Amino acid sequence: MLQEPKTIATFSSEEEAHLAANVLQDAGIVSYLEEANVPGALGLSGSMMCEVNLCVAEADQQRAREVLAREKAAAADESATTRCCPKCGADVAAGFDVCWSCEAPLEDAT
Ligand SMILES: [Zn+2]
User: Fold this and answer.
1) Is position 94 within any domain?
2) Structurally, how many domains does the chain consist of?
């Protein structure tokens, strides 16, 4: 008997949903995406709005939620990491190789 698939997350873009699906796949969880058109959500721009549901088997539901929560926390950590420019002391967001203020190259001090 097939297990009832459960929607564990809803995304506003297919890209985000695919990213989450990849994360689950890495964790060994089979998931699939289900596009749900939102009634009456034809935007002012005229573009079609849709939501994408990320679904997993009921048995994987709990684990999938945990995996996504961990991933989210890790992403938040990363974006919160700033480095201090050794030359002028400005806070430079992670991912930048040079200081936005004085353009000094930053040491990889991680
Ligand atoms: Zn600087």
Assistant:
1) no
2) 1
Burial 55-89 (b: 16+ CB within 10 A, else e): bbbeebbeebeebbeebeeeeeeeeeeebebeeee
* Residue 10 belongs to domain spanning: 5-80
pLDDT above 60: residue 63: yes
Task: Average the pLDDT over each of 24-28, 67-71, 77-81 and give the range with the smallest value.
Answer: 77-81
Over residues 49-71, the mean pLDDT reads 91
Q: Output the CA 72–ligand 1 centroid distance in Å.
A: 30
- Does a structural domain hold residue 71? yes
CA of 91 to the centre of ligand 1 (A): 8
106 located within any domain: no
79: CA distance to ligand 1 center in Å?
19
